[in-house]
């Protein structure tokens, strides 16, 4: 039986998510409604994808009895409040990353989900790629030995994107793209709390970070060196490498949504399907892996997804909090 989705937000990421939902096989997920800030925006989105119901408010999505789960794809300063609203309305929720500005905020949302006995997941889609699931298995099985070094780089020119540069919109490179490097480190080091965190960044005149470098040091001597920038395009160099005492793993370009990776045993790859509407971002077809993970969890009666658990999100935000403190950025959301 298809999982019935309600969508909050009619922007570019919601476009890509819905197109991925409707990619082949197309009978697994069904979008029953779309809600936006205006009925006109919602109707345009609905017409593009053949969605039966369009709403001019998010409250109407929350009240739609045909919705099994809500995908929240609005600008992230509204993620906490909207997640709570949907959970309290009795809906399961998949909310785009970053859900929150801090650990305390993500804990608030997770507590509401627990009280309401509803599924909640932060949409760290990277973790759901088959390549990443295989990498996690290799590391957990000890096939790389002791992990000694993780390096990752994500550099994408975003300085013309208003929500990236405006502190009132939760701007900054850390929240938008830097978090991808952090999630990799926390996955590889199995949510350990680093013994030391060192962060440096360049702040714009508006006080948001345009680039940064983060070093995480762990108790076993392992380190993660993480670099991000919104000022230039690294292209094929946006890669990641994991070094262990027995071998290494190399994740190819766009390491946060990779087509392939090289393990000691050889190359592995993902098959990413095209949806009915063109994607705005590279490899957005991989959002389908995330949706399928959610569906499997709900069918099994689980309120969390093993690929992105509440503990996984907490480990990420513990590091984010310290980085924000060290670089002196004031998150205004």
Describe this structure in words.
There is one protein chain. This protein is α/β, with parallel strands linked by helices and 333 residues long. Helix content is 34%, strand content 24%. The protein contains ten helices and 14 strands. The chain has an eight-stranded mixed sheet, covered by helices on one side. The protein has a six-stranded parallel sheet with strand order 3-2-1-4-5-6, with helices on both faces. Strand 12 (248-251) and strand 13 (260-263) form a beta hairpin. Helix 4 (79-88) runs parallel beside helix 5. The longest helix is centred in the last third of the chain and has 18 residues, at 310-327. It is globular and about 55 Å long.
Record field, number of beta strands: 14
Largest sheet data: 8 strands, mixed
- Report the end-to-end length measured between terminal Cα atoms: 38 Å
Oligomeric composition of the shown chains: single chain
Helix and strand run: EHEHEHEHEHEHEHHEEEEEEEHH
SS-derived structural category: alpha/beta
Which word captures the global form? globular
Radius of gyration: 19 Å
Unreliable sequence segments = none
**Helical stretch count?**
10
What percentage of amino acids are in beta strands? Answer: 15-25%
Average pLDDT figure: 97
Helix content: 25-40%
What spatial order of strands do you see in the largest sheet? 8-9-10-7-11-12-13-14
